[in-house]
Amino acid sequence: LATKAEELGVEIYPGFAATEVLYNDEGAVIGVATGDMGIERSGEPGPNFARGMALLGKYTLIGEGVRGSLAKQLIAKFDLSRDSDVQKFGIGLKELWQ
Ligand SMILES: Cc1cc2nc3c(=O)[nH]c(=O)nc-3n(C[C@H](O)[C@H](O)[C@H](O)COP(=O)(O)OP(=O)(O)OC[C@H]3O[C@@H](n4cnc5c(N)ncnc54)[C@H](O)[C@@H]3O)c2cc1C
Question: Given its phi and psi angles, is residue 97 left (phi above 0), alpha (psi -120 to 50 degrees) or beta?
Fold first, then answer.
């Protein structure tokens, strides 16, 4: 699907985690920022250092899975779970029949 999406003009950045939600002056979400790459174990920039990118869009869709770090921030900031039960997680077993 990635190839088909790119044919439609979608830009895909595999391997880049969104690390920060970006807001405008009114507090509305305008995009996300990716983290810096190539930081050494010491915390200093290494030879492959690359500054993170700001990815801005008319709409920002967060699809991080069930316990996304940015999603959790957004749920707290905008009180998105006020009308919902708390999320529940469980361990499942899958049985395969042949
Ligand atoms: C063991 C197991 C078995 C399952 N079996 C089934 C099944 O048989 N049938 C079924 O219908 N469902 C099944 N599910 C459930 C199904 O996998 C999930 O409901 C579904 O994948 C959720 O989709 P999603 O897109 O919301 O999240 P995900 O599939 O979790 O995708 C989120 C993606 O976002 C990426 N990501 C997270 N944070 C960031 C970030 N900050 N920046 C960039 N990328 C980020 C993650 O790496 C991941 O690739 C199963 C789940 C598990 C764990």
Answer: beta
The tens digit of pLDDT for each residue in 26-50 reads 999 999 999 998 999 999 999 999 8
Q: Kindly report the protein residue whose alpha carbon is nearest to atom 28 of ligand 1.
A: 65
Provide the b/e sequence for 48-80 (b: ≥16 CB within 10 Å). eeeebbebeeeebeeeeeeeeebbeeebeeeee
What pLDDT was estimated at residue 87?
Answer: 84
* Most distant CA atoms of the chain, gap in Å: 58
Q: Determine the distance separating the centroid of ligand 1 and the alpha carbon of 63, expressed in angstroms.
A: 9
Cα(48) to centroid of ligand 1, in Å?
A: 30
Domain limits, the chain: 2-77
